[in-house]
Write a structure and sequence with these properties.
homodimer, alpha/beta, four-stranded parallel beta sheet, 12 helices, 12 strands, about 15% strand, DNA-binding
Chain lengths: ~350, ~350
DNA sequence: ATTCGTAATGTTAACGATAACATAATCCGT
DNA sequence: ACGGATTATGTTATCGTTAACATTACGAAT
């Protein structure tokens, strides 16, 4: 039974099905694609034969003719942040329903890699791309070129504005203001900010929000306590160690995201200090671990799954309707108050 | 500056570059692909012009000619389990280096979806697929057909054996035996097993390992305490509630994976019982949350990243070398002893 | 039976790139 | 200066599918 003959490759084409039945490829094509003008008997024979021969349509050829691949490229900075798998989950949900497939690419927070990745996706002629950009330089010309080329592009989470691409983000600046104000209300006299990079949209927006809150409340901040080490746990650890090595350190910390906050918490605790008694800290993202930490981390909840769904839906509308307007959506976040900010049950 | 002319699509082809310079497409093709027999001057002109016109090679057309897409399909059951993003990370690392791109697909633990997904990947003519299967029925004919069709296929984590496909898994059965024995050594008189599904390879192997340990130590187990509710947190919660509703419940629990263990822990604690004082529990996976839980979860560490890398490397070797042998690899795991098993610091 | 209309089927060209073969241009040694 | 070897360039056919046009078949109406 096992191992019939060993043909090198048995990928069946339309033509082979056609010859097997003595009809033309067009008739087979019509039958397979359920187009009109095929005799019922013929159609049944074709369908049976196609099944028997194990015919699978070649989408590569189809794509070449139609200039449509039903494929979407997804560019994310770091797949191991719990935020992004959740976004991908949301994207998947929409794309699956709309019969698109996704190319998932991880740039490791590297803009050069990001460009290469996008170029590769363009070469593969994806119908559109979803990007959370790691751009840190003030040069949007690359994405401007992408937009000009007509490739549908929707940013999510980390956006680049003003180049004619839609964006699904959150109200980062306001959320950052609110969570900073939450710390201010606790009465902490000094607050530091652990940023990833101000070149990245979320880094800039969250820092601005931090400053808004400080200014509104007539507080000043020590520029030494505003540092940029990166967006992951390791960089949070290093950033915090740097701050702790200064002659003075702040009474509270706003971290640009939860991984950074988690790294910082490790640094604080390893230095023999207590959270929130010695240093209070808040994050941003509502990482899956936030509620489990000791103390649990006060943070900003971002609806990752929702962001993924909205971004994918927007992109598909942009692909399928050339008149779909460009828009920037800011989804509301909410503050999740736990223990790390000093809040008592 | 913005909004030059509004051409519908400005995707440049080889031919357009060729006409712009008055040479043939072949010459352009050779120049672009850095092939020999192109005059240096001509080559420079072509490269300049291609860049100026914004030419991007069309991989769809290339793929049609070469029957190679440099694309790998990745089929995973649930992207929100921390295990899988880690695996994907490992896969990404290898594929990026080898210039492949990955189609990421999520089947939501549904075998029907899985088949449709694999069919879609075949239609898109991926060069190979990496699958962690949700197959729960005793019918491997579908994958047998895939293997027979010559499509390179490597399973990871959840394997289907005996059909001629390679597999990168872990020594599930042994690991399960070891962690069960760890509980036995604690002296618990009764142990239950929360399975996902015995139809899935890991469910079967881990259950077998559990039984091995019990038998070896002359213990019996109550079949009522062996339940199958699924592989996620919710099913763990429900499974445990079911067990707790029985007239008697076991002194310790082996969960088929960490999400199930986490759900079960919630159920136990909501029932007013303590872990490990009333019920001890161990998991499997070393989820990112395991060490942060209260109590921290004793579990089996599976090198997810490593599995991803090995699986991707094996698949690429299989794609690029028709004589690459079929092999099943079992990677070693290690037990991470924390508090939920009753261990004291 | 002739003609017309529609349904069924077939043929050709095209999508963009490249392999394989064909030709033109250049170089070199004697 | 000539023939043979290179090197540079061009032409044709092909990958698998489908759009667009062309043809054939068949039933109905007169």
């Amino acid at each position: 039974m096992a191992g019939r003959d060993k043909v090198k490759s048995n990928i069946i084409t339309l033509k082979e099905v056609a010859t097997a039945l003595g009809v033309s490829t067009m008739t087979v094509s019509r039958a397979i694609n359920n187009r009109p003008n095929v005799d019922d008997t013929t159609k049944r024979q074709i369908l049976d034969m196609a099944k028997k021969m194990g015919y699978t349509p070649n989408h590569v050829a189809k794509s070449l003719v139609s200039s449509r691949t039903y494929t979407i490229g997804v560019v994310i900075p770091e797949i191991s942040h719990s935020f992004f798998p959740d976004v991908v989950h949301g994207i998947e949900e929409v794309t699956k329903q709309k019969k698109y497939q996704i190319f998932l690419t991880n740039t490791s927070e590297n803009y050069e890699t990001e460009r290469q990745t996008v170029d590769a996706l363009r070469s593969k002629r994806v119908d559109g791309i979803l990007v959370s950009s790691s751009l840190t330089i003030d040069d949007t010309s690359y994405y401007q070129m992408i937009v000009n080329s007509g490739l549908p592009l929707v940013f999510f989470d980390r956006c680049i504005h003003g180049i004619g691409a839609s964006c699904i983000g959150v109200n980062d600046r306001l959320a950052s203001t609110l969570i900073t104000e939450h710390l201010i209300r606790h009465g902490y006299p000094s607050i530091g900010f652990l940023n990833g990079s101000t070149g990245v949209s979320i880094g800039k927006a969250r820092y601005e929000g931090f400053k808004d809150a400080m200014r509104t409340h007539g507080l000043t901040w020590n520029e030494q306590w505003v540092v940029e080490y990166g967006f992951n746990e390791k960089s949070g650890f290093e950033a915090m160690n740097h701050v702790l090595s200064l002659s003075e350190y702040p009474r509270a910390i706003v971290a640009v995201n939860d991984p950074v906050a988690i790294g910082a918490m490790k640094a604080i605790q390893q230095a023999g200090l207590s959270i929130p008694e010695d240093i209070a800290i808040v994050g941003f993202t509502n990482d899956i671990r936030a509620e489990l930490l000791t103390p649990s981390l006060t943070t900003v909840h971002q609806p990752a799954h929702e962001i993924g769904k909205l971004a994918a839906a927007k992109l598909i509308r942009t692909i399928e309707n050339p008149n779909e307007p460009v828009e920037s959506l800011e989804i509301d976040t909410s503050i999740v108050v736990r223990r790390s900010c000093g809040h008592q049950p």
